[in-house]
Amino acid sequence: MVRRGRFSSQDGAPDYQKGKIRSMEMYTQSRLYCSIYKQPVQMSKRRQNNYASILDRLIYILESILLFSFHRPLSCISSKYIQICILIISLLPSQTLIAKTFIVSVAPSYPIPVSLNVPEELPPSIKKLRSDKDATPTNIKQINNETIPDKNQIWIDVFSYISQETGLELKFEAASSQLDFELNLAKSYYDLALVSPLQFDAFKQNPGYQAQVKRKAQPIRGIIFVKKNGNIKSFSELRDAIIAFPNPLNFESSIAPRESLKRLKFNIIPQFLASEAAVYKEVISEQYIAGSGTHENFLAQPVEIRNSLKIIWDSPGFSPHAFVAHPRVDFFSLIKLKRAFVDMIKHEDAKKLLPYIFVDNGFEVARDSDWDEIKLIDLNALNGSIKNTHLK
């Protein structure tokens, strides 16, 4: 085996101390020298070390193949095989060393952060998000005075942590609207994104986003709520009633509960309103006897609204939001991302962020097939005809 040498400033090629096949090595190493060491790539010290380690191993393997081939009899050597090896070595650095910035975003429909301390007046069916179950009076005072991060800030913090753990450059860009978010997905603008099950099903084939991770053992559930002091005492009283829903394509608050009721053959007449906030407002004002939402957006409502409502039905669970990657994201980066997300719950600093993004049990690696149930939802049949659907 020929020992690897160092680059010479005179000829731009390694000066090997041993070996008799200098010309081929000079060609290969000279090509590498031009593509790697003279390429103006600005990277952090940590990323340079990571890339250099990976690249050195790959170059060493390919060099070994070439050297082994040249020591074989000529009849055993394929010229095409040698050319392919040279081509791989020549092109490899340009694909490996470029420090790409990955654009990442989150679906605007994802719920906003809420306080980790839920008031005692809330219905018992709501899970209390507390950082410490045995909080002392001093701790409670601190919780009551907590600064709740806004949605953009909490995701910036999450992706900053992921970036530090992986050494990847992640740039968070918040979408201005749901339409803007989906248009960017269709144009392959995002490298990484957290999408709803319906969005993942829509963009899985084209442009080909692939699932990477999802919340562990925490499915999406829709809810039906009524006014606490109203006339409705049980869910069965809502059969054939008009129930307020957000827009027809809101998966969590609209599609999930309506699909579940359809499978249960529990007939209702949906009334679609402009937003989730409008649904709560209309039920409070008794314009509708019931409305639909999720536990997360229920918690995001003002205290006076939460205390005036009660949840009388939870839908069966559906697969949660999917963190997806575009096919252009390389394999090694995806491995790092998955490991970082799964390990978030093991690190105290990262674990503190999870309640604000409604993750109770951490993340787990996901597969595209985890969302096969979405294919069973017929939106045309679910949204109904004009006869059975009200729009407002």
Could you please describe the fold and organization of this structure?
The protein is an alpha/beta fold. The chain folds into 3 domains: 22-96; 101-219 and 319-375, 3-Layer(aba) Sandwich (D-Maltodextrin-Binding Protein, domain 2); 222-318, Periplasmic binding protein-like II (D-Maltodextrin-Binding Protein, domain 2), CATH 3.40.190. Helices cover 39% and strands 14% of the residues. The strands form 3 sheets. Strands 2-1-3-10-4-11 form a 6-stranded mixed β-sheet. Strands 8-5-9 form a 3-stranded antiparallel β-sheet. A 3-stranded parallel β-sheet has the order 6-7-12. Helix 8 links the parallel strand 6 and strand 7 (269-272). The protein is globular. The relative contact order is 0.12.
**General form:** globular
How much helicity do the residues have?
A: 25-40%
Which segments are poorly predicted (pLDDT under 50) over 5 or more consecutive residues? 1-52, 93-97, 120-143
Number of β-strand runs: 12
Q: How many helix segments? A: 14
Tally of domains: 3
Helix/strand-derived category reads alpha/beta
- Which CATH architecture of the largest domain would you pick? 3-Layer(aba) Sandwich
User: What's the name of the CATH homologous superfamily of the largest domain?
Assistant: Periplasmic binding protein-like II
How large a portion of the residues is in β-strands, by DSSP E? 5-15%
- The ordered H/E elements are HHHEHHEHEHEEEHEHEHHEEHHEHE
Task: State the CATH class of the largest domain.
Answer: Alpha Beta
N- to C-terminal distance: 78 Å
Q: Order of strands side by side in the largest beta sheet?
A: 2-1-3-10-4-11
The pLDDT mean sits at: 79
CATH topology term of the largest domain: D-Maltodextrin-Binding Protein, domain 2
